[in-house]
Hints:
Blueprint: H1 6-16, H2 27-40, H3 45-53, H4 56-63, H5 76-84, H6 90-109, H7 119-127, H8 134-141, H9 146-158, H10 173-179
Helix pairs in contact: 1-4, 2-3, 2-9, 3-6, 3-10, 4-5, 5-6, 6-8, 6-9
Amino acid sequence: MTAGSIEEIHALYERWGAEHYDEELSQLAHALQTAALAERESAGDGLVAAALLHDVGHLLELQAGADATGPVDRRHERTGAAYLSEMFDDGVTAPISLHVQAKRYLCATDASYAGGLSAGSTRSLELQGGPMTAAECRDFEARPGFAEAVSLRRWDDLGKVDGLDVGTFDRHVPLLERARRGPCLPQ
């Protein structure tokens, strides 16, 4: 299944955004905070869109009837990136598909990183494979979108402040339209 429109994505957040996954705040609040952090660092439209939509895979799980809590890694990063792939290019989808791997990478390469993870992120880390090995780190560093995924991951970790108001999803619709893949031209 792929996203057909910005309106369809918006509807997912309207329907499922109030739900929690493994954190104290809602899916929507987390998405908006993560995007606000990307904007604060002057990230481009594609990376802000990735920050906003990085956990859309959790919403798709909820829509499908899956319980988004509990000890199962459903690979929300892959599901979300695949869902968005018809509308957005790799500048948006690559950081989304790699943001879980970026957590594993940062745990392996930054001695203080793991101590700053939320309780939910700490619980999911082991399900996601734990810190990367040295070989996995080298492979990850060679992937297109590596640096952007690391930035996204850091914003993801910081975007978990209960009660912080950073606006609405509606204010991001023009940005999503700008970041959207243009219509495919016949070849």
